[in-house]
């Protein structure tokens, strides 16, 4: 189907992609914890996996794309301590915890639409899969990898490590980890400080709690993804993704839970998207350096010089490889705005080209065919969108030349023009997931152009160049734009 190679975070190698059950393919991506607004860092990770999903579909796979919603309100501390995020946010906003969940799930979906992400084929919630999680915790107890104590259940990392190796994904070693937790040893109900919660006993004040064989409680964060991926994709599936910061402990714990139940690795290819940084630091809510999508599209943020469109940001993300760190700054946004325009204009020019082949220019013909192949080769090379965009830019330069030479693609054969049209539009729209934006966004461009025209007209009037100023007014009138002169200013209106 394709010659796709994927960097596998587990083997730490680029491997040829061999799906388990072609043409079917299982893709699981850890979704958001819906207790607050997603920021641009989160958007980068979800956009990266949207692009990966799009390309897998383009390659002809029938992808079951599962992206969960974490709504069960796990605790702020991964070891199973701290406050319940949903409940503390609910208090802050005077809402029910499930109202918090609803509010931020709807907000997340709006953001996904804004950035032109395709919906997953299944979007399961943690609270909708409590039974599956209890079931998994019970199997882990039966298999000797978990224990119940005081109404809670913990994963026994030492017991697991004796039969399987804990830490294979993150490359961490259990002794070093134990050393890190040394101060906590003996202070908790857990056998070892390194053990993590599968189920936590709820205090009487706790709101989000469920009945279980161990009393009322709620599941640990890592368990939901193991339970939901197994339910919808099976005990072994093709690709599991998420942001780099989930590698440890979340994905490491997922592996241990799945192996603890079925005795084999659950995932063929582990993929991790890298972080979006701001001033060299990971963008995160807790560091207070995050930008929200709404701040971006309104320009209402101290970092921003103006509003930037969602597609500009999507394009900025696509300009770097999903596994590279990316720093967001104004220069990058401005360049992305220009780059996006260049590609979208080329799509428009491409549809306006006429075909009247006079004499084929062998070099141009060969160059275009090779660049079209380079698009696929780049994506097959671990979804290298940076290389893809470089090839698209070169194709856009050819398209511009044709357009400027009388809208004629007469140096290439009809077959090559068709190949160029199909390849260009497919990669820009279907694979990179870019689109032309709304009239509102176009109006900002029109505003700028019109200001320029008005300035030129003013200059010509000051120079008493009436011929030019009349020509501007009349030509605009023909185009349905009326110039309005008042005492203080000149404006325009679309008639
Ligand atoms: P969370 O809701 O915090 O679990 O995050 C949702 C997704 O966003 C996870 O896959 C995280 O790894 C990812 N993420 C969080 N911060 C960033 C960031 N600064 N850059 C890229 N991805 C991020
Ligand atoms: Zn997860």
Description:
The two termini are 52 Å apart. The protein has 3 domains: 5-273, HUPs (Rossmann fold, 3-Layer(aba) Sandwich); 278-431, Up-down Bundle (Four Helix Bundle (Hemerythrin (Met), subunit A)), CATH 1.20.120.640; 442-494, no CATH class. The chain has 16 helices and 17 strands. Helices cover 47% and strands 15% of the residues. It is α/β, with parallel strands linked by helices and 495 residues long. The relative contact order is 0.11. A hairpin with a 4-residue loop joins β1 and β2 (13-16). It has a 4-stranded parallel beta sheet, with helices on both faces. The chain has a 4-stranded antiparallel beta sheet with strand order 7-8-9-10. It is globular, with a radius of gyration of 28 Å. The model has no long low-confidence stretch (mean pLDDT 91). It binds adenosine monophosphate and zinc ion.
Short description:
The chain is 47% helix and 15% strand.
Heterogens: adenosine monophosphate, zinc ion
Oligomer: single chain
How many strands? 17
Spatial strand sequence of the major β-sheet: 4-3-11-12
Query: Which descriptor suits the 3D outline?
Result: globular
By DSSP (H or I, 4+ residues per run), the number of helices equals 16
Number of domains: 3
CATH hierarchy class name of the largest domain? Alpha Beta
What's the Cα radius of gyration?
28 Å
Strand content: 15-25%
In the CATH hierarchy, the architecture of the largest domain is 3-Layer(aba) Sandwich
> Could you say what the CATH topology of the largest domain is called?
Rossmann fold
Q: Would you tell me the overall average pLDDT?
A: 91
Per CATH, the superfamily of the largest domain is HUPs
Assign a percent range to the helix content. Answer: 40-55%
Q: Kindly, what is the distance between the CA atoms of the first and last residues, rounded to a whole number of angstroms?
A: 52 Å
């Amino acid at each position: 189907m394709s010659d796709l190679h994927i960097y596998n975070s587990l083997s730490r190698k680029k491997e040829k992609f061999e799906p388990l059950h072609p043409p079917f393919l299982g893709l699981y991506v850890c979704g958001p914890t819906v207790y607050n607004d997603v920021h641009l860092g989160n958007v980068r990770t979800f956009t990266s996996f949207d692009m990966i999903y799009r390309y897998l579909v383009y390659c002809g796979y029938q992808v079951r794309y599962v992206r969960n919603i974490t709504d069960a309100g796990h605790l702020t501390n991964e070891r199973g301590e701290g406050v319940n995020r949903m409940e503390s946010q609910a208090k802050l906003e005077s809402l029910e915890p499930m109202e918090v969940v609803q509010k931020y799930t709807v907000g997340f979906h709006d953001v996904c639409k804004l950035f032109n992400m395709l919906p997953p084929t299944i979007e399961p919630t943690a609270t909708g899969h409590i039974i599956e999680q209890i079931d998994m915790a019970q199997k882990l107890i039966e298999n000797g990898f978990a224990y119940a104590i005081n109404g809670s259940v913990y994963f026994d990392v030492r017991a697991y490590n004796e039969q399987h190796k804990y830490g294979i994904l993150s490359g961490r070693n259990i002794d070093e980890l134990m050393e890190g937790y040394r101060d906590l040893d003996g202070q908790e109900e857990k056998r070892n400080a390194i053990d993590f919660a599968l189920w936590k006993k709820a205090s009487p004040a706790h709101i989000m709690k469920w009945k279980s064989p161990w009393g009322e409680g709620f599941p640990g964060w890592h368990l939901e993804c193991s339970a939901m991926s197994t339910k919808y994709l099976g005990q072994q599936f093709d690709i599991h993704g998420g942001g780099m910061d989930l590698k440890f402990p979340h994905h490491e714990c997922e592996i241990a839970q799945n192996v603890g139940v079925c005795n084999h690795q659950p995932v063929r290819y582990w993929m991790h998207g890298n972080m979006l940084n701001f001033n060299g630091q990971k963008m995160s809510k807790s560091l207070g350096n995050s930008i929200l999508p709404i701040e971006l599209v309104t320009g209402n943020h101290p970092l921003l010089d103006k509003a930037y469109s969602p597609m500009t940001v999507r394009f900025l993300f696509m300009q770097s490889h999903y596994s590279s760190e990316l720093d967001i700054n104004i220069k990058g946004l401005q360049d992305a705005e220009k780059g996006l325009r260049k590609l979208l204009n080329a799509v428009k020019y491409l549809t306006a080209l006429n075909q009247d082949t006079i004499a084929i220019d062998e070099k141009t013909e060969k160059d275009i065919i090779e660049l079209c192949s380079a698009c696929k080769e780049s994506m097959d090379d671990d979804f290298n969108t940076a290389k893809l965009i470089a090839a698209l830019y070169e194709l856009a330069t050819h398209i511009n030349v044709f357009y400027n030479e009388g809208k004629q693609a007469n140096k290439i054969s009809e077959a090559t023009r068709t190949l160029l049209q199909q390849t260009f539009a497919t990669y820009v729209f279907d694979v990179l997931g870019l689109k032309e934006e709304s009239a509102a966004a176009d109006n900002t461009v029109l505003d700028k152009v019109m200001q320029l025209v008005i300035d030129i007209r003013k200059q010509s009037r000051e120079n008493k160049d009436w011929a030019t100023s009349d020509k501007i007014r009349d030509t605009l009138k023909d185009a349905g734009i009326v110039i309005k002169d008042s005492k203080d200013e000149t404006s325009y209106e679309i008639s």
